[in-house]
Design goal:
Blueprint (H helix, E strand, L loop, with lengths): L3 E7 L6 H14 L3 E6 L2 H4 L8 H6 L7 H7 L4 H13 L3 E6 L2 H9 L4 E4 L7 H8 L4 E5 L5 H14 L6 E6 L13 H10 L2 E6 L5 H8 L4 E5 L17 H18 L8 H4 L2 H4 L2 E4 L14 E4 L10 H4 L15
Parallel strand pairs: 1-2, 1-8, 2-3, 4-5, 5-6, 6-7, 7-8
Antiparallel strand pairs: 9-10
Helix pairs in contact: 1-5, 1-11, 7-8, 10-11
């Protein structure tokens, strides 16, 4: 199973195409499968007097700036989307973007996106869910802040609206930036998998790369992780994002883990088969044995290599008559 790694650029482009392209370069160089941005119209997402989230207030110095003003600075227009999509194609990486309002859903559909990412904050937005469901596209549903019942409601809204079950991937997530380790609760991802019978993954907001790597070992098929050019840049998400070398290390570790997962079949691997004879044992003569002697516990032993009879046949050998002379340590 190849894990689909989404490098989440989000709004870490700070509203500039140049920075966005540098982020695409970093994601491509790191070996991510997709780089994801965010598509929204501030006027459709938030009221003008809404305050920033607590993590946004801590991450930014503009104390008097509203959430509306912040988002308005970070909008990408249609032309910017087209330019970034073309640049992603040139760098061999999939362009994705999360829509945060109905107008943005329509924009991304018009641009031909085949995968729609539903962010945690929209999991209770019924009109939004219905709009995406009827597109009959692949859907990645994030579940930060959600109860299992809220996930059920969103999931069956998608199914009822036209999205195929096999096209839905549900991501376990925690919507705190950064997420404390004690709040990650990775085992919930397995509960989601059992409940809905679809592919699952993990959208990570912890510091570092340990948790997303662990989630792959637990069966995540999609990993999403924020990244930035530098955590020192101004903006709401930079401080909880990976820097380029960290993103590269995460992808490298994920690729190693997915190789190591293998299949559910337990059998000797090609690399270890050559060690069987050298490390397992055979039934051997514990001392000189003459032809015609009875083989017994006093004159038999078990030693390497495994070039003779397996010690698992010990009981079958006891009481047999030696058909030849054996020197000490000779395999029977």
């Amino acid at each position: 199973m190849r894990v689909f790694v989404i490098a989440e650029a989000g709004v870490n482009h700070n509203g500039t195409i140049e920075l966005a392209k540098q982020l695409i370069d970093v994601a491509s160089d790191a070996g991510a499968d997709a780089v994801k941005f965010q598509t929204f119209k501030a006027k459709r997402v938030v009221s003008k007097n809404a305050k920033k989230a607590l993590y946004q207030q801590k991450s930014m110095q503009e104390e008097n700036e509203s959430q509306f003003e912040m988002l308005q600075r970070l909008e990408l227009d249609t032309a910017a989307h087209r330019e970034l999509m073309e640049y992603c194609t040139s760098r061999g990486i999939t362009f994705l973007s999360t829509p945060f309002d109905l107008e943005s859903v329509e924009l991304l559909d018009d641009l031909g996106l085949e995968i729609f990412k539903i962010p945690s904050g929209e999991i209770t937005n019924l009109p939004y869910l219905r709009a995406i469901a009827k597109l009959d596209k692949k859907v990645v549903l994030s579940t930060g802040m959600a109860t299992m019942q809220e996930i059920r409601d969103a999931f069956y809204t998608l199914l009822g609206g036209g999205t195929k079950r096999e096209n839905i991937t549900i991501l376990h997530a925690n919507t705190m930036y950064p997420t404390p380790l004690e709040d990650v609760n990775l085992r919930a991802m397995l509960s989601i998998e059992r409940e809905f019978g679809v592919a699952v993954g993990y959208s990570d907001h912890t510091l570092g790369i340990d948790v997303p790597i662990a989630s792959v070992a637990m069966g995540a098929s999609v990993i999403e992780k924020h990244f930035t050019l530098s955590r020192t840049l101004p903006g709401p998400d930079h401080k909880a994002s990976l820097e380029p070398d960290e993103l590269k290390a995460m992808v490298r570790s994920i690729r190693n883990i997915e190789k190591a997962l293998g299949s559910f079949e337990k059998k000797p691997s090609p690399s270890e088969t050559e060690n069987i004879i050298a490390t397992r044992k055979s039934i051997v003569a514990a001392k000189e044995i003459k032809k015609g002697e009875v083989l017994c516990e006093d004159n038999l032993d078990v030693k390497r290599p495994a070039s003779g009879i397996s010690p698992m046949k010990w009981d079958e050998i006891l009481g047999k008559i030696a058909k030849k002379n054996y020197a000490k340590d000779e395999t029977i």
